[in-house]
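Lab notebook: predicted structure, single chain.

Context: the supervisor wants predicted structures on file for every construct in the current expression panel, including those that have not yet been purified. This is the next one on the list. No modifications to the sequence; it matches the entry in the shared construct table.
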Amino acid sequence: MYSKQRMKLLEVALDFVPEPIFAIDLDKKVILWNKAMEELFGVERKDILGKGDYEYSYIFYKERRPTLIDLVLEPNEECENLYKNFKRYPNGDIEGESYIKEKGYYDWGKASKILDDEGKVIGAITISRDMSNYRRIQAEMDDNKRRYEVLFENSPDAIAYLDSLHRVVDINLSFTRIFGYTLDECKGKDLDEIVSKEGRSEEAKAITKVLFEKGDVKQKVVRYTKDSKPIDVQARGILVKNKDAVIGAYGMYTDIRELLKKEIELQEINEELEASNQELEAALNQLKAAEAELRYQYEKLEYMLYHDQLTGVYDRISYDKCIKQVDVKSNLPLTIIISDLNGLKLVNDAFGFKTGDKLLKRIARILKKNCPEDAKIVRVGGDEFSILLPKTDEFLANEIIEKIKSDIEKVKIEALKLSMSFGSSTKYNKKQNIYEIHSNAEDKMNRMKLFESPSMRGRTISTIIKTLHEKNTREEQHSHRVSELCVKMGMVMGLPSADIQELKTVGLLHDIGKIGIEESILNKPGSLTEEEMTQMKKHPEIGYRILSSVNDMAEMANYVLAHHERIDGKGYPKGLKGMEIPLQARIIAIADAYDAMTSHRSYRTAMSEKEAIAELLKSAGTQLDSYLVDVFVNRVIRR
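Prediction complete. Output recorded below exactly as produced.
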């Protein structure tokens, strides 16, 4: 079975995927629900995890029934028929399309089984894509086609559509009416052989030759009906091209027998014919434009389906496809490089997702710059990339890695130096399994990450502190004073030296979460608005996320999280009360409050020591710990 840790890592990774993804176990209970699912359906993860009885189906379709994710585990022909373009792959994956009325869009979904380390099925996972835009383009294309067919069939002119070899593909009703031939009698035959008298088709073929050479002909000629009756017609041809390649032509014949009898009416009829031809040309141009737009939209959709929207490289869904494309004998030796950006979560927590996205984009540009054109770069996770290198041995792959590392060392974003861990493995003969090569590369990368990631986190913590102090110099001085007061408290309370050292450190770091607060709020001269105060109150949680990512700071992260809790339970963020609040957090709260009161602020003057002590005593038992306030006042301040 998957461990809770692995499921949590998977959950965090899939939160970076822009497509909606969720998973169920064999009891059909939801075990994974990413942020894209939350945003699409407005159902939070905590409200759906563990739910069964087709709760997810009700969210989608307002009815409880098997859906695509269930069908990958238990085939059900009746339910499968509910999906358009339903397909089952040899490996057991399935895909299909459905219309989600609640959201008003067409959904393309793909579902796969989840296997544990022993290959046993333990659940299923599904990913969705919005196909609404594609369906809209398809509907517009169908509408254009119907309009063209109306013009083609109802034109008074006899029209035949030819392929590039001058063979009839289609004729309209007027062609049958004028010449007497049905489509079955014409299809696949040379048009000039059909409408010319037996043995006298050379003149007609010469005109057709001019059409295919010059692109357009218009001439008064005599053509013959099925019963060999001559007809004076105005013949015209128009080429049909796909880009620069000729794929066919339209041959149009207007019966002008009456026009020749009535010379006076000739001009008017010719004008009508020209107008009709222009209308047909407009319809053809519209059809060509629609075809071009459809091709563009298809290419755009295909790109979106298989590329990561943030970095522009291939996405995780296309990884297997990329592997199959390069895993051929002619590409040996074939090397896979697995790389992982160290400290991305820490950067996101401290500087925001925009900075994290900027890091990922810069990494993607560096990878593209240093990899050969035939390399396939895939973002296989939130901060993990895989590089497939055809015709590349291990020595050349190491050179590429060193070039990438060299470029990464030159980059700084928000004063942060980037760091990536790499692992590579090479396939030298066709008998080697490409997925084992991938696993070997991943194992090597993970071993390197054990050494490189902690130092990266340490550097990032230092950079965060430095950046915060640059944003607000008052915070640096405040942190040092709070740290000193915490140390004094620890000493007078007789705490062990290790605990005192911990108090010193956490005193310095207690407001590290303010790195995630806007500078305008931190440095605002007046009182904060309700909305600004709400933002400011997030800093303990931000600080907790930053410090909890560092192994030896996990406990200190809890103290930082709780340093604005109150004894009476009215604090934040959790509303802890009394002894539920860690001792260290209760100490920090007193030192923090005292220094804040006795320090000058832009919106008020500093209190005297006497005034500050009075406020501490007033808050004892409600906001602050009564015993610790007594120790602080009598043994630290008045000592």
